[in-house]
Structure prediction request, 727 residues.
Amino acid sequence: MRQWYCPFSEDSMESDRGFIKHVKRLVVKVGTAVVTRSDGRLAVGRLGALCEQLKELNTQGYEIVLVTSGAVGLGRQRLRYRKLVNSSLADLQNPQFELDGKACAAVGQSSLMALYDTLFGQLDVTSSQHLVTDNDFRSGSFRKQLSETVKSLLALKVIPIFNENDAVSTRRAPYEDSSGIFWDNDSLAGLLALELQADLLVMLSDVEGLYSGPPSDPNSKLIHTYIKEKHQGEITFGDKSRLGRGGMTAKVNAAVCAAYAGIPVVITSGYATDNIIKVLQGERIGTLFHQDAHLWTSVKEVGAREMAVAARECSRRLQAMHSEDRRKILLDIADALEANESLIKVENEADVAAAQDAGYEKSLVARLALKPGKIAGLAKSIRILADMEEPIGRVLKRTELADGLVLEKTSCPLGVLLVVFESRPDALVQIASLAIRSGNGLLLKGGREAKRSNAILHKVITSAIPDNVGGKLIGLVTSREDIPDLLKLDDVIDLAIPRGSNKLVSQIKDSTKIPVLGHADGICHVYVDKSAKVDMARHIVLDAKIDYPAACNAMETLLVHKDLASNSFLNEIIMELQHEGVTLYGGPRASSLLNLPEAHSFHHEYNSMACTVEIVDDVQAAIDHMHQHGSSHTDCIVTENHEVAETFLHGVDSAAVFHNASTRFCDGARFGLGAEVGISTSRIHARGPVGVEGLLTTRWILRGSGQVVDGDKGVMYSHKDLPLQTQ
Prediction:
């Protein structure tokens, strides 16, 4: 069974969903398109996932009322089958027939409830069935009794399941007539939410929520928060549900009525297996309807596409500038950082204090803090970057195609970069300076834990960009809700670079058509060979682990040749690591020999004062271990045997491979790149620390004197290499 958990951390919720932490009683409405498949049969898998979510919420103390559609659609499918079975040959040749909706409801209801009863029974949950009609709610005594009955059931952790009793409804056409107190299961759900004083209504549909246009249209945008004053006249609704009688129009009408009566509503997809859980975690999924929604929006909202397009336009103006003018922008930014260091320090200290109060891990807090001298170091790196050779417009190759026809291959910016990073505000400065040096537009999204630091750094940097380029060259994305929209803009954004956890990188790779550059893990190894100098090995191992344990180039696994396990070296290095506060875990051989707790996996990035130790037979065994358990980031050998070193350097398939040097050297600044936008373990475009060159591509410039192809009749191709000309 899936295990779910709903943490009510206020810091983990978007500001407009903070009320979620107070939710205790919720009504969940599941639509026909979720309950049934396209052929009308029950979608058992989706219903099973729904019941599992409700069971876990029930266990956690939530009071849950379920309103389900699907009976009419399911009954129609079953009666059609029965009709076909009992049809004559003549009937089959003319299969057109209409089924009575009330009969469909009567047949489908028993099947639907039987399935719910079975699924909940398997999960040790008790459910109850309640069939109601519009006329029932005309009675005040009925409403009172209904509330009392449901209250008693909820106290016993029973999940009441409601459905409109279409089989005996007195409405003229229950799937068309919208008169009365309620007119479908969507409006029934809203009515029940009010009658039962629910804290939240979640309506599950076959789409992610309410869109600005047809969901199939790539230009349509998911509306995260519905604002009646803004959206009521802008949205055009499509067809109703393929099987039910509601569709999005009915859901929105019911949601608006409930929300403006004081019951918040979220419309989201019922196809996902955990969306109710995500809603209750405060995640910004689906469309929220709330009576205070109009108070949450800013006067002027800048959409994801507008931000990306503005960055591209500014980047083109930047590229058109003279090299010296682009260089001056970087120098001005370096000066501005130093001039505003005290202000930056105040904002960063506020972020660090908030992270500590929130109980963040020490490794994250360490990455968050701008330590003394950091701003000066960043300014120095920017000045080094400014003094590097001009990267834009360099002629990489010149070829004479024919007499008077010269082709040049030149360097040029990629266009617009989207960089999503966690924790480290200094990354914002490095990435922004690299983008400017390479002539690219940039969109940045940092972690919420560094929001104050990122905001002040962005303000300082963009204030130093001249008006003829525009501060929109570098956009700061402040809301998590914009990321899905940005990841759809493969026509405007040219490269996405995630810097952070394995989960972050994987999520972005799985969510976009934009090329992604980065690494998911930083599992770096140091292999100490039997011929290694003991003092050198000790210094390298200690530096690789403790110099900056939270960095992606820190050592996570120490491999030691088996011959060193029998002398004092291994025990000495183990004692020194432990003395420095490093928690050690062993592989099968090391844990047995050294009495260390066994590591649960070799493929693990600690990002802290911890690492794994294992014993291997020789250099080939070390290489095999790295290929099997590593992440192709940075691996090192310590040895005095030249032949063994060359075997390692040529045999390890990683972005960076070192001999007798700490893995901590794998860094853009230390490589002389000025800075780095990240470290890539990809094999396409750029690998290892990615500096300016990794943010460039090429284009072709052809200079002629009136030549035409004309079937190649009059062209004598020479294809002669020409010397490069400096720009």
